[in-house]
Design goal:
Low-confidence stretches of chain A: 31-43
Largest sheet of chain A: 6 strands, mixed
Radius of gyration of chain B: 15 Å
Oligomer: heterodimer
Strand order of the largest sheet of chain A: 1-2-4-3-5-6
Helix content of chain B: over 70%
Radius of gyration of chain A: 21 Å
Helix content of chain A: 40-55%
Strand content of chain A: 5-15%
Strand order of the largest sheet of chain B: 1-2
Structural class of chain A: alpha+beta
Low-confidence stretches of chain B: none
Shape of chain A: globular
Number of helices of chain A: 10
Number of strands of chain A: 6
Shape of chain B: elongated
Mean pLDDT of chain B: 85
Order of helices and strands of chain B: HHEEHHH
C-alpha cells in the first residue's frame, strides 16, 4: 500500500538536484576555456591525431584551402587559433561541414589566419602558415583546435608546436619549423589580416560563404553547432552562393 | 519480480553499458555505433569528461553504487539508491542535451544508458515512497 513517505523522496530529489547542478556548472566552466584536460597539452601528447587524420584524409589541400579547387562555392573561416570559440566551432561544427560539403566537392574551405589575441596566437599562426607551404595547414589548424590550451598561458611552446607538427601526416617537420620565419608566411598573415579588415570582421570565429573568398558574405549563426553552420551554408549554396 | 529485483537487473545492464564506454574511452578506440559516427563525436567531445574524469567512468561508478545500495535492504539503502539514480538521471539528461543539441550527434550507447537511468530513477523513487514505515 502506498504510504505517505514523501519526505525521504524530497531529500533524495534535493540532494540529487544540488549534485547535478554542481556537475553541470563544472562541466560548462570548461567551455569558454580550453577543452577538458588540455591545460597541459604537451604532457599527454597530441590528442585525437587519429581523428584529425581521418577527417582530412584524402581531401586535397592547397595552401589555406581545403577541398576541390573547382568547388562551386567557398566557405571562409576567419579565426585566431588561440580563440576558445574558434576551437569549439572547429571541434563541434567543422567536421560536419567537411564531411557533407567539402569532401563531396560542393564547397571548399579557406582559412583566414588572424593572430590578435597574444604571443601564443602569433606562434601558432606562423606554424600553421608554414605547414600551409607544404599544403598541410588544415591538419595543423585542426590539431591545434583539438589540443588548445588556456588562452595566453604561453602553452604554444617550441615543444608544443613540434609535437603538433610531428602529428601531421606527410609533413617535413624541420622544414616547417624553419619556414615559420619565411617571408611568404609573413605575407600570408598580412594578407589574411587585410582580408579581415576589408570584410569588417569584428569577432572570431566568423564564417563567410560565397562564390569566391572575395565575394563571400558573413553567415548569420544562431549558435556554433554543425547544424546551424550547415543550415546557413546550405542557404547560401542554394541561393547560388 | 519485486521493484528491487527489476532495479538490480537494470543496474547490471547499466554496468555493462557504462563499462563498455569506459573501456572504449581508455582504449582510445571507436565505440561500435549504429548512427553515423555520433558515438565517436560524443565520446571525444569536451563534454565526455568532467574535471578530467570520463563521464563514462562516472556512469559506471553510479551503476555500481546503485547495485551496492540495492543490496542493502533498509531505509538507508533505499535512500542512497534513489538519490544516486536521480543524480544519474539529472546528469544524463544534461549530457543528452549536450549530445543532441550542442554536438548535434546521437550516441546510441549514451541513450541506452540514459533510458536505463530513467527507469532506475522511477523504480528506486517508487521503492523509497512505498517503503514500510
Amino acid at each position: 500500500m502506498l504510504r505517505s513517505r514523501v519526505l525521504p523522496l524530497i531529500v533524495a530529489v534535493v540532494v540529487a538536484a544540488v549534485v547535478v547542478i554542481g556537475a553541470i556548472v563544472l562541466s560548462s566552466s570548461g567551455e569558454d576555456g580550453a577543452p577538458s584536460g588540455s591545460s597541459a597539452p604537451v604532457a599527454g601528447g597530441v590528442k585525437e591525431a587519429d581523428l584529425s587524420r581521418e577527417m582530412l584524409d584524402g581531401i586535397p589541400q592547397d595552401g589555406a584551402v581545403l577541398g576541390d579547387p573547382d568547388a562551386p562555392a567557398v566557405m571562409v573561416e576567419v579565426a585566431d587559433l588561440q580563440c576558445p570559440f574558434c576551437a569549439e566551432a572547429g571541434r563541434q561544427a567543422l567536421p560536419r561541414i567537411i564531411e557533407d560539403y567539402v569532401r563531396p566537392g560542393r564547397v571548399k574551405l579557406e582559412f583566414v589566419n588572424l593572430a590578435f589575441l597574444g604571443e601564443d596566437s602569433t606562434r601558432l599562426a606562423r606554424a600553421a602558415q608554414a605547414a600551409g607551404l607544404q599544403d598541410r595547414l588544415w591538419d595543423v589548424v585542426d590539431l591545434v583546435y583539438r589540443n588548445q590550451g588556456q588562452e595566453n598561458s604561453g602553452y604554444a611552446t617550441e615543444t608544443y608546436i613540434r609535437q603538433v607538427l610531428e602529428a601531421v601526416p606527410g609533413l617535413d617537420v624541420e622544414r616547417a619549423l624553419r619556414e615559420r620565419e619565411d617571408p611568404r608566411v609573413e605575407q600570408a598573415l598580412a594578407r589574411d589580416q587585410a582580408y579581415a579588415d576589408r570584410k569588417g570582421i569584428q569577432s572570431t570565429p566568423t564564417f563567410l560563404a560565397g562564390r569566391t573568398a572575395a565575394a563571400a558574405e558573413p553567415l548569420e549563426l544562431s549558435e556554433l553547432t554543425g547544424e546551424a553552420l550547415a543550415a546557413a551554408l546550405q542557404a547560401k549554396v542554394a541561393a547560388g552562393a | 519480480m519485486t521493484l528491487r529485483h527489476a532495479a538490480i537487473v537494470l543496474a547490471l545492464a547499466g554496468v555493462a553499458v557504462a563499462g563498455y564506454l569506459t573501456y572504449v574511452h581508455y582504449a582510445g578506440i571507436e565505440p561500435v555505433c549504429t548512427g553515423g559516427g555520433g558515438c565517436e563525436r560524443v565520446q571525444t567531445s569536451t563534454y565526455s569528461e568532467l574535471v578530467g574524469v570520463p563521464v563514462a567512468l562516472l556512469g559506471l561508478l553510479a551503476y555500481a553504487t546503485l547495485l551496492g545500495a540495492l543490496a542493502v535492504d533498509g531505509e538507508l539503502g533505499r535512500l542512497v539508491a534513489a538519490t544516486t539514480a536521480l543524480i544519474g538521471l539529472g546528469f544524463s539528461a544534461y549530457l543528452q542535451y549536450r549530445s543532441l543539441v550542442t554536438l548535434d550527434a546521437t550516441c546510441i550507447w549514451c541513450l541506452v544508458s540514459a533510458a536505463l537511468m530513467a527507469c532506475l530513477a522511477v523504480l528506486t523513487a517508487t521503492r523509497l515512497v512505498r517503503a514500510p514505515a
